[in-house]
Amino acid sequence: MTSRIINHPVLDKVDDTDFVSFTFNNDEIRGLRNESLAAALLANNIRTLRVHEESGTPRGIYCNIGHCFECRVTVNGQQGVRACLTPIQEGMTVSSGEKFLTSVKDWRSNNE
Amino acid sequence: MNRVIVIGAGPSGLSAAITIAENGNEVLILDEYMLAGGRLLGQLYEEENGKWWNGIKESKSLHDKAVALGIEIRLGTPVSNIEKLDGSWVIYTDEETHYTQHLLLATGAAEVPLPIPGWTLPGVMSVGAAQVMTNVHRVKPGNRGVIIGVNVLSSAIAMELKLADIDVACITLPKMNQVTKESGNPMDVMNSLLHVSHMAPSAFVKFGSKLMKNEFMKKMGITFFPKKGVKMWDIPIMLRKAVINIYGENAVEGVTIATINASGEVIEGTEENISADFVCIAGGLYPLAELAAVAGCPFYYIEELGGYVPLHNKRMETVLDGLYVAGNITGVEGAKVAISQGVTAGLAIANNLSGGKQEVEINEAIKRIEHTRDNAFIQFHPAVKEGKEKLQRYWEEYGQEVKVGVTS
Fold this sequence. Notes:
The complex is a heterodimer. By secondary structure, chain A is α+β, with helices and mostly antiparallel strands. Chain A has helices at residues 37-43, 103-111; strands at residues 19-24, 27-32, 50-51, 58-59, 72-75, 78-82, 93-95.
């Protein structure tokens, strides 16, 4: 389990009273207003944001500041949105990508 | 059309914009992140005077100052391309296209990835990602982590994780391969570590680093470096161990480490598992310069500056008319240096707009960069000054070549 750091010895206390709700793969998730989708999901113990399009293996955040594109998800129907750069909004619909068909590769492995 | 555009709302971009606005010009800042501050946001360390350098507060104060001066800051706005068309710089974003005569690239730095078997598992992240999660978003990256890569950034962030009550099992090296090269070689790591020893609260580490001045002593230091590591902030730093694999079913469950010899080669049969629910990869930083590349700037590889940097002069002007650079795009250094570079770039732009009214101030600002660099608490590369001198020589040579080209 991961958790929020509400109190910190040096930094200010976090206001953890103002929540917004959104869905991730049809599950209702609550996060703090203005936080990033990546942070809200991690605070809810969700690390897998998508699967690799060809292999289906799980992927999560890597750089957390928009450079690596590992955290891309679909937000309100728009594909390839970086979870680390996207502030959550009330009613947002988020889903992780699915494994693509690899029909040609599968056929070749059985026929060549 | 006199509005200046700055790409990047980190310490250099914000301070450049402030300087430009203070000299009576309009400025627009674009940044793809959701908050202003860039890498400054995550920074948190205790300075020699006992005061805390709090990146969030520093970022907020720069941001508020910029807003008070009427600077427009558009966050959540990635720039996908820039080009020069009909004498103007054209800046493409998802929503809008912007035009300017004077464009400052203050895009900062990115982290060098170190590929290690298992590194695509959820829970493996760059050390900067863990820093931002912890200090900015205030969500624990996990409960117990292993940091792979021993350098200035990873040592500083390890301490920040400890502050937030997150357990760091150890800081250790990646298994040496063609990509990880010097990050996996204990000797090279020892060399770079000697420059952070002043940050260590442990007298042993401070004392030890003084002994390590000559090559023989360093070699001895590596050979006799305790296999369990030396503790810094109560975290074992293991220069004689390397992570050979990150394991887990659908997320990180731990790492396999092995003992390595002084040259970084794995000693078979010494493998052991350390359990962890997150892993940080710390490969160091490199200047994030794609926009300067697509614009057509000449580049030079300067190791002391962290990688390829666009050619520029001390006024932060590139060889392309109306294109300027400041901050970590010019070489990896601390936020205070970035701020002083931003001020210099801002003055250079204001000066070009005003027809030369800021000449005196520019020279002072250039001196201030050097002063800030000399007094920096954290030096990302010990020879950054030599790197800057190399770049200056390249600038002069380039000027000569252009002149020769024109006359011949």
